[in-house]
Amino acid sequence: MDVSSPAAFVNGGLIRMHVGRKVRTVLQATRSDIASVIGKSTDGYQLVAKGSPPVPLTSYVEVIGVAENENTIRAELWTNFGDTFGMLFYSI
Amino acid sequence: MQSNEFDGNAAFSGGGFMPSQATQTTPDRPSSASKNSDARCLLPLTVKQLVDLSRGGESDISIEGVDVNNIVLVGKVSKIDNAVSECTFRVDDGTGWVECTKWVHEHLDSVEVDAISVGMYVRVYGQLKSIHSRRTVHTFSIRPVTDYNEITNHFIECIYVHFYNTKMRGCINTQPGMTNSVSGMTAQPQVANSNFGDPGKGYSYEANQTSQYNNDEEQIRALSSMVLQYLRQPACIAFEMGVSSVVVARELNISVDKVRQTLDFLASEGLVYTTTDDYFKFTDA
Fold first, then answer.
1. What is the pTM of this model?
2. What pLDDT score does B230 carry?
3. Which residue of chain A is at minimal alpha-carbon distance from B49?
């Protein structure tokens, strides 16, 4: 990630405006497996992040990657945000 | 070397501790308070703001009219270059990246830099440097972020400071009729003061060198505008005796005490005058 392609902060409602571009968001993980994480975005949408999630995975995880469509992100970078996080304020 | 004649200006120019007459910038610069090191502020910035900084002012770098010296950044470390006496971190906050250099002289410095690894979110306090138009940060302190709400908090702070600085500047330059209810920003040397010199324009702001205005003053300004607007109505001007403060309070739904306080203030500014006891009229200048 560099200045030429900064990642836009998105939520479930905004991701459709950035399909094909680099985005970042925080998901509240509801289900995870070896190749993807399904989670809730800051505005309550269900999103899927594909890639290699960190192990162990915390409740909240930041995902930076390319938006494939309006509810899927092909993740390049994952960051565990812990088990307590202010999703409502991140959405602002 | 001492001159033969006693030169008051030279004697009291500060002996090198204060800018001399020759090096002072133009007196109408609103940010003159920032030349005083006590008034230098710590600005929360995003990397994009940092990269977009314009040149100007005594410290050579300014943003939104405020001289930039010390800054705070929060971002992810994407690269670390470890040398013998310094460590350079590439900090990326999603709006861009910047290199932050921390000089390692003591054991505490090495402990600090050893705690940082690639992929970690960090908070950086440092001084902005510009070398051949490339921005870098001379880092005073860099520490890992443990509570990720700090990231959200930092961005909200950047937004707030940006609006505070630009809104105040907008008020000074182009918005004579605008009221501003933003409370004082302790990190900034720029604070507005209301100027009631021209009643026809309503509010206009001029920069002030102090930063001690409290919420009471902001409230008085807001109330003054409301009361003045009410008294300027043709119906009120038509009353030869003026309007009683009780009537103003009732019409505007404000307490009588506050209205009286506001009217006294407006009278001292010359915008209203008393006709008889407790009756006020707009000064139709």
1. 0.58
2. 86
3. A3
Which residues of A lie inside 8 Å of B (Cβ-Cβ)?
A: 1-3, 6-7, 9, 24, 60, 62, 64, 77, 79, 81-82, 85-86, 89-90, 92
| B174 contact partners, CB below 8 Å, separation of at least 6 | none
Out of A6, A24, A90, the one facing B152 most closely (by C-beta) is A90
**Tokens linked to A23:** 């985005």
Task: Report helix, strand or coil for B172.
Answer: helix
| Contact across the interface for B148 and A2, Cβ inside 8 Å | no
Q: Do A2 and B156 touch (CB under 8 A)?
A: no
Token representation of residue B178: 């605008």
pLDDT over 70 percentage in chain B: 62
Tens digits of per-residue pLDDT, A40-86? 998 889 999 999 888 898 999 999 999 999 999 999 999 999 898 88
Question: Is residue B48 one of the residues assigned to a domain?
Answer: yes
Q: Structural domain tally of chain B? A: 2
Task: Please judge whether B149 and A2 are an interchain contact, meaning their C-beta atoms are less than 8 angstroms apart.
Answer: no
From residue B223, alpha-carbon distances to A63, B261, B274, B277 in Å are 48, 10, 18, 21
Q: What's the CATH code of the domain at B253?
A: 1.10.10.10
The residue length of chain A stands at: 92
> Could you tell me the domains of chain A?
8-85 (2.40.50.140)
Q: What is the ipTM of this complex?
A: 0.86
Domain boundary among the residues B101, B118, B146 is at B146
Strand A72-82, strand A60-69: pairing: antiparallel
Q: Which of B92, B153, B156 sits opposite A1 (nearest CB)?
A: B92
CA distance A81 to chain B (A): 6
Angstrom distance (rounded) from CA A10 to CA A8: 6
Taking contacts as CB-CB distances below 8 angstroms, the residues of chain A near B149 are 85-86, 89
Specify if B190 maps to a domain. no
pLDDT in tens, B199-252: 433 333 333 444 444 566 777 778 888 888 888 888 888 887 888 888 888 888
* Mean of the per-residue pLDDT values of chain B: 73
